[in-house]
Amino acid sequence: MLDVAADAAARWGFRVARGCADELTQLVPLAPLTSALGGSDYPFATGGNVCLPGAADQRLLLLEHLRDPLETLVAHGPVLLTLDDVQWADPMTLLALRSLTRDLASSPLIWMLARTSGGDAARLDRLFHLLEQDGARRIRLEALDGEAVAQVVTDVLGAVPEPDVLALATMANANPFLLVDLLEKLKSEGGFKIVDGRARVVSAQLLPRAQAVTRERLGELSERTRHLLQVAAILGRSFPVRDLAEMLGESTGDLLPMLEEATSAGIVESAGHDLVFRHDLLWEAVTGTLSAAVRRALHIEAGEMLLRRGGSAVPAAAHLIRGACRGDASALLGLDRAAREVLRSSPQTAADLSKRALELTDSTDPEWVDRAATAVDALTAIGRLSEAADLARPALGRAPPMAARRLRCALAYILLLSGRPADAVSEAESLLNQQDISDELRGVAEWTVFWGLISLNDLRRGQQRAESVLADRARHSDVAVVGALLMLSRHAMVDGRVADSFAHVNEALRIAGSGSVEAIQRPYARLLLSLNFRCMCQFEAADMAIQAAQGEIETLGVTVLAAQPALFRARVKLATGRFDDAAAEAHAAMTIADDMGTQGFVRVGLSILAYIAVRRGDIDDAVRQVERYLAEPGAPGMLFGSAWERWVEAVVAEARGDRERAMELLAPIYTDMERQRWALITAPLAAAWMTRLALAASNRPYARTIVETAEHLAGKNPDYPIFAAAAAHARGLLCEDPAALAFAAANHPQPWERASAAEDLGALLAATADPSTRELAVDSLDQALDGYQRVGALRDAARVRARLRASGVRRRHWAQPERPAFGWDSLTETERTVAELIARGLTNRQAAARMFLSPHTVSTHLRRIFAKLDIASRAELARIFAEKCPGLLGDA
Q1: Beta bridge partners of 113
Q2: Which residues pair with 112 in a beta bridge?
Q3: Which residues are in the HTH luxR-type domain (predicted)?
Q4: Distance between CA atoms of residues 439 and 478, nearest Å
């Protein structure tokens, strides 16, 4: 099928790129895609030792380096890319397929993937399921039916088969390759007689022979050729002649007669620089003639041969992992080398190699601890945190002092990522209490303690520790100093000293940018800066900080934070009332988190979707999102966790009419001053909402403490008007003060909150007995209705319409014309901007940078645009844009 598709595509003007996975190359990151795109012409193809400068985890960079040649290829016309035997694809290739098929969905690129049984079936099933969800079509090739078998026989023999020929054909078990092979062989031996266009079998004795046709094909070869093929089969379905000659200890010239015999017999054929078995069944038939013991021995010999050559150990590891026995020191060292090589580029492969090496290592072997440490690093990188922790703990007891310290530091970080900050702090402090630890480990341990205390909201303890570090900087590494500054930045923000918070985080960034700090520090600091900007409603600055953080996450390889830029953007979009964009960013973040193994951050995305669902009036969907959120791995102590998730749970509970549950969820915020300040800073709308909730629950003390905290923040930060607006809104509710509500409705920098304040003002004025306020009340409610409708807050708009009806005023369900479901007019403002940039020839990544979006989000918007416009290519989009917006493309 792939051959036919490739031929057809070439005739129709497609460029065709073809790759194939192999059982013995499935440890080489991106091997099938590398071969499809031209091998060593691309920077990620380095003979198995995939390496790009700088990054601690190179998966994000490798995906980018793979995306570039693909985008260049499709820029010159439509492309068909086929990958065969995907069941043997390496983990990085599967990740690339998931990511690139989605991101390049709007490009003129057709993917055809073929698989059979074998390999990692669960991982492959998941990939194919996700691709089907994205619109891919799956074709299952079943065994040939009777009619198809008759057609094949007719094609091969040039005659209509009699029943005895069809009976013979059933011996091939409806397998196309075996059927054609059987027919051609028996035809060449004169096994058929053709009379008047009909074919019959010459002798009934041919029937039993049909079952053994493949074995007979091998049996007819000379003994030397059979032995050559057995060794060749160990090297893989395709194999270099040079490797075969070296394995046999002969020159290439000496092998020529045997290779010619194997080729003439139809067992192998030429494929570029290598030879290849003509079909998997032939390859399997040859390997099946070897006993398990002999296969293992030959794999070891092949692995050792490749190791002796130097260079990458990954190709050798593909053999060693199949042949190594317990205690085989040489083979295990080869696996160690390979695991370390691919740790940064394909940590899943590194985990598989190191775990296999551990299985073959005696517990008393001094190499056990190093292998365990490699496995811990790899498992951490792919998000299998509990497995990594379970392996790190016993390794601690066996490791010599220096290795034990590194493992303890790694364990502390694992616990931090797992949402267990208290345990992380305990492990890191245990390490810091030891003597003679290196400056590097001490810095990382101190940084872990600071982030653990931030996650625990233990700011007093964190402040004391940070001030101690800064008071004696000479004794601490820059890593520890950066951690201390970020701790003080968080403390200052919670204390209401916003300017001090900015000063601390900017100093941390200055030190982190000096080059002496571990790579992981900079993106964390940048994200904290963006958080500060967003809380102060400085949205453009927040977007710029997020963009910088995303670039650093990719180039420095801080993959654990890969989903965070999209999550942070989602919160910015929420604050600016762009719910569609916020939802798109949340979905993009969850996809990235799932792809990269950091599922704990999926929780934040789900909480954002739950909040959007409440605002849109879909309470059932909001409940579903919260239920998914509660079922996700991770804990509220995840890095960058905050009061946001708890507050959203409360919003959903209140929307369901369960006010008691909402109050229960928020009790720690109502009663803890530090938590309360942090909640009101990070979610400015929380002040009014929590005040309103407390009043509805007849708990004025709770409402009063919220108002007092909001006014405290406003008084300490006169340069940041968000606090004055939020405090006025909360005070207006508590004191029934129309002037305060009017101030909030006029001055709050966030659109939903302005509408909320206008609604509260209208409700307050409508409740008075003074008829003169009726017109003011209606004006305020109209302002609220318009504000809610502009951001798509349908539930809130419906509530305001009900208030207006109670005042004797009826309003339409939508103040603006309804947007159609399809066609150019159905596009949102963001979608039109994306359409323009793509029509101008920008790539998804370039468009994302212009719009302060993630590339995944641009891909999501493009898929929606294509569906609404019923198109399938960027060229069609450019044509439509030129028609709808004449002159704009010419000005570019």
Answers
A1: 83
A2: 82
A3: 820-885
A4: 10
- Please give the Cα distance from 269 to 276 (Å, whole number): 5
Task: Write the CA distances from 864 to 791, 834, 838, 871, integer angstroms.
Answer: 19, 11, 14, 10
Q: Name the residue type at position 397.
A: G
754 has a pLDDT exceeding 60: yes
Q: Does residue 229 come out as left (phi exceeding 0), alpha (psi in the -120 to 50 range) or beta?
A: alpha
pTM for this model (two decimals): 0.84
Residue 29 has pLDDT above 50, yes or no: yes
Report the range of poorest mean pLDDT among 180-189, 217-226, 439-448: 180-189
Helix 368-381 × helix 385-398 angle, to 10°: 160
- Supply 206's token pair: 């041919």
pLDDT in tens, 309-340: 888 899 999 999 999 998 889 999 999 999 99
161 pairs with which residues across the strands?
A: 199
Looking at the DSSP assignment, which residues form a beta bridge with residue 79?
15, 109
CA distances for 89 relative to 21, 355, 407, angstroms: 5, 19, 31
Distance CA 90, CA 798 (A): 52
Instruction: Give the Cα-Cα-Cα angle 805, 806, 808 (nearest 5 degrees).
Output: 60
Q: What count of residues does the chain have?
A: 892
Nearest to 127 by CA among 115, 139, 109, 118: 115
User: What does the pLDDT look like over 813-828, one tens digit per residue?
Assistant: 554 456 787 888 888 8
Q: Which residues contact 76 (CB under 8 A, 6 or more apart)?
A: 15
Parallel, antiparallel, or unpaired: how do β-strands 160-161 and 198-201 relate? parallel
Average pLDDT of the chain to the nearest whole number: 87
Q: How far apart are CA 347 and CA 468, in angstroms?
A: 38
Q: Distance (Å, rounded) from C-alpha 711 to C-alpha 245?
A: 83
State pLDDT tens for residues 391-404. 999 999 888 888 89
Q: Nearest to residue 177, comparing CAs of 201, 203, 209, 141?
A: 141
**Run of H or E residues at 15:** strand 15-20
Residues in a beta bridge with 238 = 276
Integer Cα distance of 298 and 324 in angstroms: 11
Q: Where are the alpha helices (DSSP H) in 617-699?
A: 619-631, 643-655, 659-671, 673-682, 686-696
Helix axis angle for 700-716 and 673-682, nearest 10°, is 70
Q: Burial level of 878, CB count in 10 A (0-12/13-18/19+)?
A: middle
Q: With contact defined as beta carbons under 8 Å apart, do 176 and 144 qualify?
A: yes
Cα separation values, 383 from 446, 595, 633, 697, Å: 23, 10, 11, 42
Q: Which of 461-470's residues contact partners 24+ apart within 8 Å by CB, and which partners?
A: 462/487, 462/490, 462/491, 463/487, 463/488, 463/491, 466/491
DSSP state of 814: -
Cα 865 from Cα 67, distance rounded (Å):
22
Structure tokens that stand for 188 in this block: 């060449």
* Residue 128 to residue 101: CA distance in whole angstroms: 11
The pLDDT of 577-596, averaged and rounded, is 89
Task: Note the pLDDT of residue 732.
Answer: 97
What's the rounded Cα separation, in Å, for the pair 231 and 279? 17
Q: Which strand (E) or helix (H) includes residue 268?
A: strand 268-271
CA–CA separation, 856 and 848 (whole Å): 9
Q: Where are the alpha helices (DSSP H) in 767-890?
A: 774-791, 794-806, 829-839, 844-851, 855-869, 874-884
456-472 burial, b at 16+ Cβ within 10 Å, e below that, comes to bbbbeebbebbeebbee
Q: First-to-last CA distance in the chain?
A: 43
